[in-house]
Design goal:
Length: 153
Amino acid sequence: MYQRIVVAIDGSDTARRGLDEAIRLARRDGARLLLLHVTEAPLPLMLNGDWTLPAIPVETYAEAGRKLLDAALAEARAAGVEAEALQADADGRRVGPLISERARAWRADLLVVGTHGRRGLDRLLLGSVAEGVIRTAALPVLLVPAAETTPAA
């Protein structure tokens, strides 16, 4: 059914679940995967009443993204799936639309994204990459939710 699947990788548990699902679908359909990681510059923090950037070089974020992609690429290939990796720099752009744009450029027919399912203030403050993808994607999007938690007794 699917021949070209893009999966967004960010190191989170939900992205991990998205990768697992993308590999499963790719194996089932004989599809090819594009593993995509978007590197963002760190957000400013409020310290002692002043806004400041973390003292971590942007290159450190890029290197961490490269390691995530390398591990995901090895996993996909070990599962017998043809895969390639792409690291994109956000350059101040919103991540969701950038993911959609890269999927379109790669001619994907499915985009897999993990979603945290944030609501309320968390969603307002942290944004939603998944929502940005859904609003801008011109192809089917598979949202993979966070692992189910056991209800409180």
